[in-house]
TrEMBL record:
<keyword id="KW-0472">Membrane</keyword>
<keyword id="KW-0813">Transport</keyword>
<keyword id="KW-0066">ATP synthesis</keyword>
<dbReference type="InterPro" id="IPR005953">
    <property type="entry name" value="ATP_synth_csu_bac/chlpt"/>
</dbReference>
<keyword id="KW-0446">Lipid-binding</keyword>
<feature type="transmembrane region" description="Helical">
    <location>
        <begin position="6"/>
        <end position="26"/>
    </location>
</feature>
<feature type="domain" description="V-ATPase proteolipid subunit C-like">
    <location>
        <begin position="13"/>
        <end position="76"/>
    </location>
</feature>
<protein>
    <recommendedName>
        <fullName>ATP synthase subunit c</fullName>
    </recommendedName>
</protein>
<comment type="function">
    <text>F(1)F(0) ATP synthase produces ATP from ADP in the presence of a proton or sodium gradient. F-type ATPases consist of two structural domains, F(1) containing the extramembraneous catalytic core and F(0) containing the membrane proton channel, linked together by a central stalk and a peripheral stalk. During catalysis, ATP synthesis in the catalytic domain of F(1) is coupled via a rotary mechanism of the central stalk subunits to proton translocation.</text>
</comment>
<dbReference type="InterPro" id="IPR002379">
    <property type="entry name" value="ATPase_proteolipid_c-like_dom"/>
</dbReference>
<comment type="function">
    <text>Key component of the F(0) channel; it plays a direct role in translocation across the membrane. A homomeric c-ring of between 10-14 subunits forms the central stalk rotor element with the F(1) delta and epsilon subunits.</text>
</comment>
<keyword id="KW-0375">Hydrogen ion transport</keyword>
<keyword id="KW-1003">Cell membrane</keyword>
<dbReference type="InterPro" id="IPR000454">
    <property type="entry name" value="ATP_synth_F0_csu"/>
</dbReference>
<keyword id="KW-0138">CF(0)</keyword>
<keyword id="KW-0812">Transmembrane</keyword>
<feature type="transmembrane region" description="Helical">
    <location>
        <begin position="54"/>
        <end position="79"/>
    </location>
</feature>
């Protein structure tokens, strides 16, 4: 097995782990935030608009982590800086 094949295999494995962890943790956080938002609206229905607005802002921030993970995985797969070291 040549070095280019090893680099490609490690890149694919690393991208898979990156997107798995980077997708799992933000989705768990969003689920917990949604649970707390629903509980808060149930306790204080007059504050529902403010609670929902804060939930959407928090969900957007948490979702950005998943998007960063996707970008990192795509960079690892398609713009790996270590490929050029072994293709000479």
């Amino acid at each position: 097995m040549d070095s280019l094949t090893i680099i490609a295999a490690v890149s694919i494995f690393t991208a898979g782990i990156t997107i798995a962890i980077g997708g799992m943790m933000p989705s768990r956080g969003e689920g917990e935030a949604l649970t707390k938002a629903i509980e808060s609206v149930a306790r204080q229905p007059e504050q529902a608009n403010q609670i929902i607005r804060l939930f959407f802002i928090g969900a957007a921030v948490v979702e950005s982590v998943a998007i960063y993970s996707l970008v990192i995985a795509l960079i690892i797969l398609f713009a790996n800086p270590f490929i050029h070291l072994f293709t000479k």
